[in-house]
């Protein structure tokens, strides 16, 4: 059974987020990436595989080295989702604030009787 991976799955893990940050600045070979972590090279390779499956990086063969390059366009999907959630919650909190203000006004009017 093949697992469908998406960009949200990729950024869910702190190690993968760190790998994304590293290669966003410059392409790196797998060894250079693996050296930055206190986990096995095999674990780093699995993270790189997931990032590749999610389309956030590509691996290019340059001689004997495998170079990881960032492809961050799919992060726009995350940014869009965050913007939508932010707009939704701002609207909800504005409605809540309006409701609380109305309740406060009702309480003041009732107390002034």
Topology at a glance:
Elements: H1 7-11, H2 14-25, E1 28-29, H3 30-34, H4 41-53, E2 57-62, E3 65-70, H5 75-111
Antiparallel strand pairs: 1-3, 2-3
Helix pairs in contact: 2-4
Please tell me about this protein's structure:
The protein has 113 residues and is of the alpha+beta class. It folds into 2 domains: 7-73, Orthogonal Bundle (Arc Repressor Mutant, subunit A); 75-111. Helix content is 64%, strand content 12%. It has 5 helices and 3 strands; from the N terminus they run ααβααββα. It has helices at 7-11, 14-25, 30-34, 41-53, 75-111; strands at 28-29, 57-62, 65-70. It has a 3-stranded antiparallel beta sheet with strand order 1-3-2. A hairpin with a 2-residue loop joins strand 2 (57-62) and strand 3. Helix 2 (14-25) packs across helix 4. The longest helix has 37 residues, at 75-111. The chain is rod-shaped, with a radius of gyration of 23 Å.
Brief write-up:
With 113 residues, the chain is of the alpha+beta class.
- Tally of separate helices: 5
CATH superfamily of the largest domain: Winged helix-like DNA-binding domain superfamily/Winged helix DNA-binding domain
The N- and C-terminal alpha carbons lie at a distance of: 70 Å
Helical content (DSSP H or I, runs of 4+): 55-70%
Order of helices and strands: HHEHHEEH
What is the general shape? rod-shaped
Class by alpha and beta content: alpha+beta
CATH C-level of the largest domain: Mainly Alpha
Strand count: 3
Query: Per DSSP, what share of the residues sits in E-state strands of 2 or more residues?
Result: 5-15%
Low-pLDDT stretches are: none
Question: What is the CA-atom radius of gyration, in angstroms?
Answer: 23 Å
């Amino acid at each position: 059974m093949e697992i469908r991976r998406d960009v949200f799955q990729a950024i869910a893990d702190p190690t993968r987020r760190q790998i994304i940050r590293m290669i966003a600045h410059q392409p790196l070979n797998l060894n250079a990436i693996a050296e930055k972590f206190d986990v096995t090279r095999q674990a780093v390779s699995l993270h790189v595989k997931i990032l590749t499956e999610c389309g956030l990086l590509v691996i290019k063969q340059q001689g004997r080295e495998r170079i990881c390059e960032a492809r961050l366009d799919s992060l726009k999907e995350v940014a869009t989702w965050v913007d939508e959630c932010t707009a939704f919650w701002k609207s909800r909190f504005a409605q809540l604030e309006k409701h609380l203000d109305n309740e406060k006004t009702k309480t003041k009017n009732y107390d002034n009787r």
